[in-house]
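Request: Mind sharing a record?
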Amino acid sequence: MSLRDFLERFRPTGTPGAAVTGVPPDRAAERAAELAPALARLTAVQQEAARIRAAGEEAAETIRRDAGRKAADIVAAAREQAPGVRRQAAEPVVREAVREAEAVRAAGGRAADAVRERGRAGLPSLVEDAVALALRPTAGTGAAP
């Protein structure tokens, strides 16, 4: 600290006008004395806010725990119900597939019946032709019918 700085401390302060000598008043101490009661009240408010915040955090943690349990219960119930829901969802598709299979089976049966009927209808003429061929003399044997 220089001599000039040291001497500056003793310069007159205050409003313009008559010169005053002496040490300037401690404005920081004056402000502190003026603000001390208000700050003391704020300390109590800060403590109350901290208490409220802690209670809120505790309540939030309880809510999170309860929500976690409820979510686990919902998931467990969904897993338990899943086979039934899948079965219900597949039921219309299975019914339609059974209907289609029955239709294909019926069409196949009709086609088989038609083939059998054609076979039965043509069988007598085939038998006649086979008998005629069997009874016809073969060339070069010399046998007469």
